[in-house]
Amino acid sequence: MDDIYFLTDLDVAKRIGANLKSMRLRQNITQSNLAESAGVSLSTLKKIESGDICSFDSFLRMLRTLRKLDVLQPLVEEEQLTPNEYWEFINSAKRKVRKRAGRAGK
User: Fold this and answer.
1) Cβ-contact 48, 17 below 8 angstroms
2) pTM score
3) CA 31/CA 38 separation, integer angstroms
4) How far apart are CA 48 and CA 23, in angstroms?
5) What is the mean pLDDT of residues 4-8?
6) Cys-Cys with 14: which of 9, 30, 51, 103 at CB 3.0–4.6 Å?
């Protein structure tokens, strides 16, 4: 497997499209059935499978219909604090803010 960071954006998109096509074929779903189920046009589906992913919404619909939306799980999870980060957060909230001395006579 190539390191994804050494691939161009176009290469990444083409590989994603090819993998989506492969998933669809393994599930024995026709392009027209997938397009209808995902609520996208057949031409949009064909573009996505060729690597022309211009609509993120359509891309998400295809992933959901193919039951592969979980590949995006790390991107939708809330980032968890490490124990050290949590400790620092709690301690910073406890620190008192130094107040400036007021002017004499006021």
Assistant:
1) yes
2) 0.70
3) 10
4) 13
5) 93
6) 51
